[in-house]
Recover the amino acids of this structure.
């Protein structure tokens, strides 16, 4: 357990040293979100209705950006071999990487989503629902992303392959998260959608690290 | 009293490593569809050393990765004290330190921070490992300012942080100068004195007295 925390700490320290990477993700998120008012017009009613969907799609795309370096750097400089021989199970290494990805990408996106949604004129009762859904949603994206990144590790043009693998798998997250926002806008109960989102998270939490761990072992061979 | 006798024995040699007889039987390895080697058998006792010799592409690195448990053997078994070693890879990882071709050094971290994750034994502090490899005055320097030889020495410092009896070294002298090779020689001798074992792949003469040789073709 302490080894797992040490690995997360090491990854966080590394991403602090490469702070520009997290900033790039946030800037991409904002820029992509701000393209929509330019493309579909500044009508507050239209924008407000589309705001949750825009925030979600932008967050999904932004979360993909750091994935190909998640294991790629460790794979190239030999660190992955050392991690696999550190006594941690491969699934625990994947879990540590998931935690580091969420803390350096998911959490900043969560904090930036509020301001972006307000800029897009989201309805006042839609904002809490959007943010509440982003918590399990970004966690699920980190889990899926880690598994995807481990699977394409060592493949030629893995960076291109990665979105093709992760985006379809992220569709259920997107559907339930945005339907929660639609339900809130119509005054319907949000709870079922939110619980389904939590169910996806509960499903992925054990499975994604196991799959990623097996993929890491295969990549190291 | 047998109990107290055992205790005094432990106190007499606290640094003794818990090494075991290592036996490889008919190991074979595949890289994709290609057979890299087959029929590799050897035996290594505590305190022993084995040099892997052979031309480029003979499978020296592959054999080391197989012994480390990173690569599953295509055939054959590896026994540690008579027990199959590669079945529980997490337990096997406790018995070995692997130094690969690559140094596994993070450029953005300082020399000392690079080792922190691997320092798990209170009696094997980072400062001592850095001192043994003449890196102590570089401890706070980011690793990207190190030369290739200094990076190799930083990778070698990981060996001293581990209490594992079996060292697997892939071209350990890569980029090292004469003085550093002497330091490595002293490290290897001290490790073997404590009952540790060394398996090294190399092209250059390595300061390993009385090492057995295993030729790969």
């Amino acid at each position: 357990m302490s080894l797992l925390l040490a690995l997360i700490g090491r990854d966080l320290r590394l991403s602090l040293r490469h702070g520009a990477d997290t900033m790039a993700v946030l800037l991409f998120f904002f820029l992509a979100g701000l393209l929509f008012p330019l493309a579909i017009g500044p009508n507050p009613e239209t924008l407000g209705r589309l705001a949750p969907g825009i925030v979600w799609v932008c967050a999904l795309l932004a979360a993909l950006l750091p994935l190909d370096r998640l294991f790629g750097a460790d794979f190239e400089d030999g660190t992955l071999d050392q991690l696999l021989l550190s006594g941690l199970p491969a699934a625990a290494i994947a879990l540590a990487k998931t935690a580091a990805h969420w803390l350096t990408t998911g959490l900043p996106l969560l904090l930036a989503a509020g301001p972006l949604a307000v800029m897009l004129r989201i309805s006042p009762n839609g904002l809490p629902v959007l943010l509440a859904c982003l918590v399990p949603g970004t966690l699920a994206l980190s889990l899926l992303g880690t598994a995807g990144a481990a699977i394409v590790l060592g493949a030629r043009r893995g960076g291109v392959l990665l979105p093709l693998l992760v985006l379809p798998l992220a569709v259920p997250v997107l559907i339930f998260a945005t339907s929660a926002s639609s339900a809130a806008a119509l005054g319907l109960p949000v709870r079922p959608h939110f619980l389904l989102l939590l169910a996806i998270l509960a499903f992925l939490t054990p499975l994604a690290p196991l799959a990623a761990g097996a993929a890491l072992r295969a990549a190291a061979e | 009293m047998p109990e107290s006798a055992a205790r005094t024995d432990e106190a007499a040699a606290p640094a003794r490593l818990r090494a075991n007889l290592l036996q490889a039987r008919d190991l074979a390895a595949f890289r994709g569809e290609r057979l890299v080697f087959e029929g590799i058998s050897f035996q290594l006792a505590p305190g022993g050393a084995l040099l892997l010799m052979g031309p480029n592409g003979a499978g020296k690195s592959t054999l080391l990765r197989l012994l480390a448990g990173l690569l599953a053997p295509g055939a054959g078994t590896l026994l540690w004290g008579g027990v199959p070693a590669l079945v529980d890879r997490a337990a096997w990882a406790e018995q070995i330190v692997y130094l690969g071709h690559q140094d596994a050094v993070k450029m953005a971290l300082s020399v000392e921070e690079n080792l922190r994750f691997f320092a798990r034994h209170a009696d094997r502090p980072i400062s001592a490992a850095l001192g043994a490899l003449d890196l102590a005055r570089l401890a706070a320097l980011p690793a990207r300012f190190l030369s290739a030889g200094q990076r190799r020495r930083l990778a070698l410092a990981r060996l001293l942080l581990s209490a594992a009896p079996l060292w697997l070294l892939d071209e350990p002298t890569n980029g090292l100068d004469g003085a550093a090779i002497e330091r490595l020689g002293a490290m290897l001798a001290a490790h073997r004195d404590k009952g540790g074992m060394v398996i090294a792949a190399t092209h250059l003469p390595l300061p390993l007295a009385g090492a057995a040789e295993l030729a790969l073709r």
Summary: The beta strands of chain B are 22-31, 34-44, 49-53, 75-80, 83-84, 96-99, 166-170, 197-201, 212-215. Chain B touches chain A at residues 65, 68-72, 90, 93-94, 96-98, 100-106, 108-109, 113, 116-118, 120, 158 (CB under 8 Å). Confidence is low (pLDDT under 50) at residues 1-14 of chain B. The radius of gyration of chain B is 18 Å.
